[in-house]
UniProtKB/TrEMBL annotation:
PROSITE patterns: ALDOKETO_REDUCTASE_2. This is NADP-dependent oxidoreductase domain-containing protein. InterPro entries: AKR, Aldo-Keto_reductase, Aldo/ket_reductase_CS, NAD(P)_OxRdtase_dom_sf, NADP_OxRdtase_dom. It is found in: Plastid, Chloroplast. The keyword Cytoplasm does not apply. The keyword Cell membrane does not apply. GO terms for cellular component: chloroplast.
Length: 368
């Protein structure tokens, strides 16, 4: 499944914290909230979303995030992340039916939480506009187009919405993929979604999905894939170029490498939980020269490493990063990636430095 949540907090006693506070304070968030140029069209669809979204994988999850525990304190922090994102002009939220799945003991569905947050926000501010993206899990026993519609309706019930802006196939199925694409088209024609996309699709699968929907006059809006400064497989396997060619937006999950690019983690302080098995002390040792340079570049703009690497992705064009926010502090920091731009030389330099680092293993279905 899409691994797109990262912990962007900095320790209280660090250069990074001073830098982060300065970066957040310097943003004119009122401008970010009101400017129409803060939005982009998703592919050739009519849907417009903010240039940067928020991933909600960690909300309610007890199988990968939150130290395998979910409590009221974490729920309040997630709610604060949602509200702060809206306050800062970020209104695009990505979730999925398997995030915080009932199959995980003690978990609360991310969709349920997002729906609750939206409802509570609109009770206070009825004019609030939120663009919701969620995903269909291509489980082996799900066959045919109707399975997509059934799953979507269940998602809508959890979200307490009559429709969503974007519905995506979370990964290619073992079989039934033709029916899944048909189901996406049906969802559009029935008015249950404004746009449709895929996730973790290879170049070949992307082209097939695009052509199948095109025959019905429906644009494929997006392909959501793992993409960051240190995980650039979409550039290497033709997915990014194909998205650009076909007019399909690339939604980047894990844009800050689940926190590895924030500067928070060091060989002496690796992430805990499952992330610690991915971003090991050995990997973090090799990563430090790049982190140091990212920090130096950020100093020139009064920006944090997190804001620099998100801006690097925005500089690739046709990319909408969706970092995961666990709390208000992270959400506010993410907003500081907007409204400025790295130079072409800085973009090239960071890519060159990152090329010296062997990437971690991604979600295996990318290569199906």
């Amino acid at each position: 499944m899409a691994m797109h949540v990262s912990n962007a907090c900095f320790s209280v006693f660090s250069h990074g914290r001073v830098q982060r506070i300065r970066a957040i304070a310097s943003e004119d968030f009122a401008t970010l909230k009101t400017e129409e140029n803060n939005k982009v069209k998703l592919g050739n669809s009519d849907l417009k979303v903010t240039k940067l979204g928020i991933g909600a994988w960690s909300w309610g999850d007890t199988s990968y995030w939150n130290n395998f525990d979910w409590d009221d304190r974490k729920m309040k922090a997630a709610k604060a992340a949602f509200d702060t994102s809206i306050d800062r002009g970020i209104t695009f939220f990505d979730t999925a039916e398997v995030y915080g799945s009932r199959l995980a003991l003690g978990a609360i569905s991310s969709e349920t939480l997002l729906g609750r947050f939206i409802k509570e926000r609109k009770q206070k501010d009825p004019e609030t506009e939120v663009a919701v993206a969620t995903k269909f899990a291509a489980l082996p026993w799900r066959l045919g187009r109707q399975s997509v519609l059934n799953a979507l309706k269940d998602s809508l019930n959890r979200l307490q919405l009559s429709s969503v802006e974007l519905y995506q196939l979370h990964w290619p199925g073992v079989w039934g993929n033709e029916g899944y694409i048909d189901g996406l088209g049906d969802a559009v024609e029935q008015g249950l979604v404004k746009a449709v996309g895929v996730s973790n699709y290879s170049e070949k699968r992307l082209r097939n999905a695009y052509e199948k929907l095109k025959k019905r006059g429906i644009p494929l809006a997006s392909n959501q894939v793992n993409y960051s400064l240190i995980y650039r497989l979409p550039e290497q396997n033709g997915v990014k170029a194909t998205c650009d060619e076909l007019g399909v937006s690339l939604i980047a999950y894990s844009p800050i490498a689940q926190g590895a690019l924030t500067g928070k983690y060091t060989p002496e302080n690796p992430p805990d939980g499952p992330r610690g098995r991915i971003y090991t002390p050995e990997f973090l040792t090799k990563l430090q020269p790049l982190i140091n340079r990212i920090r130096e570049v950020g100093d020139n703009y009064s920006k944090t490493p997190t804001q620099v690497v998100l801006n690097w992705l925005l500089a690739q064009d046709n990319v909408v990063p969706i970092p995961g926010a666990k709390n208000a502090e992270q959400a506010a920091e993410f907003a500081g990636a907007l409204g400025w731009k790295l130079t072409d030389d800085e973009v090239s330099e960071l890519r060159s430095l990152a090329s010296e680092i062997q990437p971690v293993i991604g979600f295996p279905v990318e290569k199906l």
